[in-house]
Amino acid sequence: xxxxxxxxxxxxxxxxxxxxxxxxxxxxxxxxxxxxxxxxxxxxxxxxxxxxxxxxxxxxxxxxxxxxxxxxxxxxxxxxxxxxxxxxxxxxxxxxxxxxxxxxxxxxxxxxxxxxxxxxxxxxxxxxxxxxxxxxxxxxxxxxxxxxxxxxxxxxxxxxxxxxxxxxxxxxxxxxxxxxxxxxxxxxxxxxxxxxxxxxxxxxxxxxxxxxxxxxxxxxxxxxxxxxxxxxxxxxxxxxxxxxxxxxxxxxxxxxxxxxxxxxxxxxxxxxxxxxxxxxxxxxxxxxxxxxxxxxxxxxxxxxxxxxxxxxxxxxxxxxxxxxxxxxxxxxxxxxxxxxxxxxxxxxxxxxxxxxxxxxxxxxxxxxxxxxxxxxxxxxxxxxxxxxxxxxxxxxxxxxxxxxxxxxxxxxxxxxxxxxxxxxxxxxxxxxxxxxxxxxxxxxxxxxxxxxxxxxxxxxxxxxxxxxxxxxxxxxxxxxxxxxxxxxxxxxxxxxxxxxxxxxxxxxxxxxxxxxxxxxxxxxxxxxxxxxxxxxxxxxxxxxxxxxxxxxxxxxxxxxxxxxxx
Length: 566
Hints:
Helix 9 runs antiparallel to helix 10. The protein contains ten helices and ten strands. A hairpin with a 2-residue loop joins strand 4 and strand 5 (128-130). By secondary structure, the chain is of the alpha+beta class.
């Protein structure tokens, strides 16, 4: 472990019992954790051994990991180990083969702890296993709140584990020593969803343990394998394998089984005597039955302890080299004999096929020529029939054309007749419609004029009535507005008089006097005339005429100019 810098210890106020209890619980949990890690390290050193490092440091790296991978191929080691937290439990279970139990640690600073999915979890408080609120000893996955001294004590994998083991020194019925390799697939029971008892998990962790299960499996499998090997001959031992041609056989209850072995070539497998063939088939069938019986017997022994065996495979059987060599020589001889026999059969089949091919070619050639002749004859017959059909078709076409022309002329004549008749009917209908329309139009015109005259008379009568009513209303209105109109007329008359006076005042040729004495007015008029005429060089006759007018006392004043105007 990499050493880290210690944090400065914080001073806490005294007199707090709860905090002292927390520190005591944390110290107890830390001591128990160190003790478990020490036990796990010792177990790992016993499994792996120590290398040439100082202090006896194990060569396996992390606790529980076996250094020699080559040994794992022959024998799977079931073990348990310690981890820092529950977060990496699933990764370690997937990476480490044979790991069944992990013991995670917990931080005292967090008020909760987590249980990962895919594991059975046992929770302890001060080293005592506690039940969940549901009454089960296995806690469900998820986050659970608890005091710092409550933690996830153990996690047991729910996965199926493959336990590989070789059984050496097995004696057959004819005293031949063989080695049989087994692959046992098992899982730990305790899933309540499948109706299993969760107390199996507790028994497995604290009573059976991973090492104990490995020892029991080894003993049970060795005993069963040795007893099976003792009941067979060395020629029947290969039939125990139920993993033929790389395909896994189904030895579970109700699983389909292969009807016959598929390993190697069938011609070489059964090229020997008939009794060898029967012996091989019987050995293969016996191997399947033995694997299934072994699985059932192991389940009868381990299921009460909480371990279920789901599959048993006999992956390999190793015979002594001398026997293997003898069997190989026998197989080589059988293969050579089979090859010679097959070569002879191939040559015979080749000759037979060549003869059959030549015969078939000749027969097909004759059939082809015969078919060609038959085809030419049929073509001639068909050509004759075709020419005959063409001639008949031409005659039929000419006849059809004549009949078509006759039918067309008949149809045209009937059409013209029908057209003439329809035209006459149309003209008659048009004349009838025209006469009826003229009559209806005259009648409508007379009625319209009568209606118009009647309406005009009524309108004139109504207009005269409205005019009389309007005159009457105007008279009444004038009678009502007479005083107002008279004052207006007086105003207008006075205004016009003032306009006349203004025009007279603006006339320079007019003399206006405010006196009523005629002589004074005549004198003033004469003075004005003389002044104006002298300036304009008026003639004497004009002057005399004006004086005459003045003498007569006329009120009209004339201005006689040189141009003869008034």
